[in-house]
Specification:
Layout: E1 4-9, H1 13-25, E2 28-33, H2 36-42, E3 49-53, H3 61-70, E4 77-82, H4 86-94, E5 99-103, H5 111-169, H6 175-199, E6 206-210, E7 214-217
Parallel strand pairs: 1-2, 1-3, 3-4, 4-5
Antiparallel strand pairs: 6-7
Length: 223
């Protein structure tokens, strides 16, 4: 089982130690902080999940959630509330929390499972989001390629047609002139082949263009 890292935000030392022990049993290493301010300071330290008690000495859990979002912290948060605070928990989930656990009975037994599910759901969501972005990028490339093919083909056809016409009319012309016209004809045909590939593009492949900065369409590897 993968070892996860949790930031446990709990101002009650006894509750914090109890949860820390049960989290560790489920391969979840935790660091404990006792206030919302400390949570905001430590949230960017490479954790997989934040376990956030609602009642804290400085600011409440909802405010912590709001500030985490404002700082761009992209981590799943599980809010831990007191018994009878279900409405608070609902508000927390509206504010971006993945789930909540009520401090009732043996609640600390549930926390590790909820924490792991939160991490899995968050990772799945990020993966699907990235796949959607990539699909949208591919579609944009395909649409651009089709447009480029259309815009290039018209003037290219004029150039190629005139080159072929001149070749047919200048059979006895200077050999150098004929050779240059042949080069124009050959290059136009190559461009036409490339634009045809663009028109039929369905699975674009990108390759590095400017090292570490830009990428370009690889015509030969794309399908």
């Amino acid at each position: 089982m993968e070892v996860l890292r949790a930031l446990l935000v709990e101002d009650n030392p006894d509750h914090a130690e109890l949860m820390r022990v049960y989290l560790e049993k489920e391969n979840i290493a935790s660091d404990v902080v006792g206030s919302g301010g400390e949570c905001l300071e430590r949230a960017g330290d490479g954790y997989d999940v934040i376990l956030l008690d609602y009642y804290l000495p400085d600011i409440d859990g909802l405010e912590v959630l709001r500030r985490l979002k404002g700082k761009g912290v992209d981590l799943p948060v599980v809010v831990i509330t007191g018994h009878g605070d279900e409405q608070v928990a609902v508000e927390a989930m509206k504010g971006g929390a993945y789930d909540y656990v009520v401090k009732s009975g043996m609640y600390f037994l549930v926390v590790p499972e909820v924490a792991r599910k939160a991490v899995e759901a968050h990772r799945t969501s990020k993966r699907l989001e990235e796949e959607l972005i990539q699909a949208q990028r591919r579609e944009a490339i395909v649409q651009t390629a089709i447009a480029v093919n259309h815009e290039i083909n018209n003037p290219l056809g004029v150039i190629l047609g005139n080159a072929e016409l001149l070749l047919s009319q200048l059979k006895d012309a200077d050999e150098g002139v004929v050779r240059k016209l042949r080069i124009i004809e050959e290059q136009c045909i190559k461009i036409k082949e490339i634009t045809q590939k663009l028109a039929n593009l369905t699975d674009p492949v990108l390759t590095e263009y400017l090292k570490g900065r830009e990428k370009m369409l690889d015509i030969h590897r794309s399908k």
